[in-house]
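cron nightly-structures :: item 1 of 1
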Amino acid sequence: MKKTINGVSTEFGDAFRKLGPIPTMVKPDPANDKSTVYLQKNQVVVNWYPKIQAMKSSGVQGGDGDAAPNQTHLTAKHIAFLDMDRLYFDLERFKAERGWHNLNITGEGLLPLLTNQSWYQLLIPAEELAFDSFEKVDLSEDDPNFLGSRDESGSGYYRFLIERSEEEIIAKLEILKTSIANGSLLPWEFQGLKALWFDRHLYQPLLYMDSNVVEISPVPLNKGERRFVEDIKAYHDNSHEFFANKELYLLRNLSKGRGVGFFEAGNFHPDFIVWLLVDGQQYVIFVDPKGIRNLGQTDPKIQFHSTIKEIQHRLGDSSVRLESFIISNTPSHTMRMLWTIDKTQMQAFHILFQEEDKDTYIESMLKMVGVD
């Protein structure tokens, strides 16, 4: 055997991994690729019983019984809760650790692979996969849905980077800190910094900044995001009759790599998630305030109102409805010149206009998803 091929050592299979065929990780397709028949006849078996037994020895409850292992698969509901970004990067990291240079993994290929049940078996108690308790949701101290990191008391916090000489600003921030600790939620604004209080958001306050007096982490709201929070708060607070039988929740989505993103729309991470509960029906609305002057009609972000309905179909739960909206700070007359379509056609793309329809666009959004 040659010691090298094209300068690559043959020892430990290095030459094959670097110079061999480049397969792409996709779902099995026996009709077009006969080699995938082997995977369907010799399925991957993932057995969770040993791990569950180890958890029980540590005091974790659930999953009792000595019967034959329950054989099952992930459903569309389970897959909908998977963090595809994290899964993709974990696979890339594992590939790099193993030196599998000739394996091609794509983000777009993950969902079709996971929804195909022909290549694997999952051994796990049925009750462990049941959607029957929020106790199964792991909200650990570093859960990204919480604000920032966590201090010794377990409370999330903002981080401010500021010069020690800025004593006046530091004093104002101390007032804000005390207000948060006391739950007084008093109006607070200073030198371009503003605290927004809305009790339907997961945490309070949200911070807006239009100056560079300090650096803040997580990144503060921009102007369009601030206006959206103020507008939805105003509508909620002034529409008691409308919300009499409804529950509204708001969550600012996190940035790429941590928040809810969508490969189907070019790794789009909408800025906000609005969750509305109405008589057992859940409306999950992804909202992105932004300028759209530089976007075309076929841009994945513009077409996401359609893409998300495909995701809803895959979810397969009639009690959950997914929607998405662009809240444009670019005027409709500007977009009419650029796209040569009228405002009604833009609204069909779930584009609403923040400036010109300030007093009505929140109500329009809710009515467009079918909430009366």
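cron nightly-structures :: done
The chain has a mean pLDDT of 83.
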